[in-house]
Amino acid sequence: MDRLSATDAGFYYAETENAPLHVGSVAVFEGPAPSYGDLVRLLLSKLPQVPRYRQRVREVPLNLGRPLWVDDPHFQILYHVRHTAVPKPGGPEQLRNLAGRVLGQRLDMAKPLWEVWLVEGLENDRWAIISKVHHCMVDGVAGTDLMQIMFDLDPNAEQTAPPDWSPQRTPSGLAMVAGALTETATAPLRQLVHSPDALATGAKGLVGSARAAVNTVPQLARQALTPLARTLTGPIGPHRRWAWSDAQFEDLRTARTALGGTVNDIVLTAITRGFRELLTGRGALGADTVVRTMVPISVRKEGERGSLDNRVTAVFVDLPVGEPDPLARLASIRSQMDEYKRTMQAVDARSIISMGDYVAPNLLAMGVRAAMQTGQMWCQAVTTNVPGPRVPLYVLGKRMVSAHPYVPIAGGTRISIGIFSYLNEMTFGINADFDAFPDIDVLSAGICRGIAELGELAAAKQPAAASR
Fold first, then answer.
1. Is residue 237 exposed (0-12), middle (13-18) or buried (19+ Cβ within 10 Å)?
2. Cα–Cα distance between 408 and 215 in angstroms, integer?
3. Would 190 be classed as within a structural domain?
4. In what order do the strands lie in the sheet with 68-71?
5. Where do the O-acyltransferase WSD1 C-terminal domain residues begin and end (predicted)?
6. Which of 117, 122, 149 is nearest to 132 (CA)?
7. Phi-psi bin for 124: left (phi > 0), alpha (psi -120 to 50), beta?
8. Are residues 168 and 238 in the same domain?
9. What is the pLDDT of residue 16?
10. What phi, psi does 284 have (nearest 5°)?
11. Using 50, 70 and 90 to split pLDDT, how confident is the model at 390?
12. Band of the pLDDT at 29, cuts 50, 70, 90?
């Protein structure tokens, strides 16, 4: 049995009826589709590599400790693997509509927190897998590693027979309380024994954080006075709209080379164009308006790839949607991201995150739930970029041709953009509250135009540079 980390427990506690906190994806494959039974047997053979997929969350009575991962004695894979189809020939719109409904539904919190849907009926003899996994199980980077475990790198990979499995006994409520109280009392001492410099490292991280906070006070004050796109935040309903846009990774890299910055800077600038068009259509665009987006940042070390807990922190970037010049938009985003990089170097983010392990579990639960119910007005969107595999992936010998990410929304932030790269393609998966974003396609198309706009500027700059 493992105990949820403070970060993972926060994602678990934040789940509400109208804000399911699972991440997901839609992967499209070359046909013909495998049988449902073949997919079930494949997943059964892979589960020993990801034991979390047979475990469920068990809360400690009275929240005296963070929840535990325990084996589900009634685990039944047929519940988690579903089979559906769209009317032939199913195009992108039919797949998006189906995926929006599936991904918008909550997972059963009393069972292992994942689902896989086999979708048939797509045009060009293709089929798809819709996958869902709760954020308390896995962050984006670990999710990419999980995809490589569940999928094959070789189209001719042999499939092993599913091994037998027996669940470990679930502890009683009394045993869980006793274990939680013991851990609360002894965890700091154990930490010191195994890592004598743990407190010093944590204290150093806090000092660095305090210094960084002092340095960023002017920026925070400026953000507090910045006119925000208020129409993007508000109550979240139970239904979702979902769309996606695609781009060639090479086009983004070419723009980066010609215009400067990073690929992430180019991506955020293209997204800024999308939000600019959306707010223009709503009549809500001012000359100084910004869309503030939370940008999660992985603090996972190279040796930790493959672990399935969350190792993330976040920064807040003001997308200058009111700025008409795309190069000025890029310069603004580059400046902010460069400043955040300098700040992050001064802070041991991992130490700050780990300090959450010492927060009283009942206070952690109440605090997260209160924050989600209260909502917030500080940021209007979530934008997360997860680098995916640059090699082909296969399921039962069928090549994956594309993958589209799904990032949850919560806490008054009614739209999220998940960015995922696979082979030479980058896709933008846009998840939004159904009632608040009837114009989601305006944002999706605007992102494409933003990429094309930066590509044209890059092309115009390259001949000028070559002629010098």
1. middle
2. 32
3. no
4. 2-3, 68-71, 55-58
5. 310-450
6. 117
7. left
8. no
9. 87
10. -120, 20
11. confident
12. very high
- Residues 6 or more apart in contact with residue 4 via CB below 8 angstroms: 12, 57, 66, 67, 68, 69, 136, 309
Please, what is the average pLDDT of the chain? 81
Q: Are residues 163 and 223 in the same domain?
A: no
Q: Could you read off the pLDDT of 116-166 as tens digits, one per residue?
A: 999 999 999 999 999 999 988 875 444 444 556 778 888 998 888 888 888
How many domains are contained in the chain?
Answer: 2
Is-contact 453 326, C-beta < 8 A? yes
pLDDT digits (tens, 9 = 90+) for 88-126: 889 999 999 999 999 999 999 999 999 999 999 999 999
CA distances, 119 to each of 56, 88, 116, 200 (Å): 26, 11, 10, 52
CATH number at residue 55: 3.30.559.10
Instruction: Tell me which of 132, 149, 177 is where a domain ends.
Output: 177
Domain, as residue range, for 415: 197-467
**Residue 351 pLDDT exceeds 50:** no
**What distances in angstroms separate CA 30 from CA 99, 194, 402, one per listed residue?**
18, 50, 10
Neighbours of 39 (CB within 10 A): 18
| Burial track 351-374 (b if 16+ CB lie within 10 A, e otherwise) | bbbbbebeeebeebbeebeebbee
With contact defined as beta carbons under 8 Å apart, do 320 and 287 qualify?
A: no
CA dihedral 355, 358, 364, 367 (to 10 degrees): -60
- Tokens 């579990």 locate to 361
| Residue-level pLDDT at 185 | 59
Task: Give residue 461's pLDDT band: very low, low, confident or very high (50, 70, 90).
Answer: confident
Band (2; pLDDT cuts 50, 70, 90) = confident
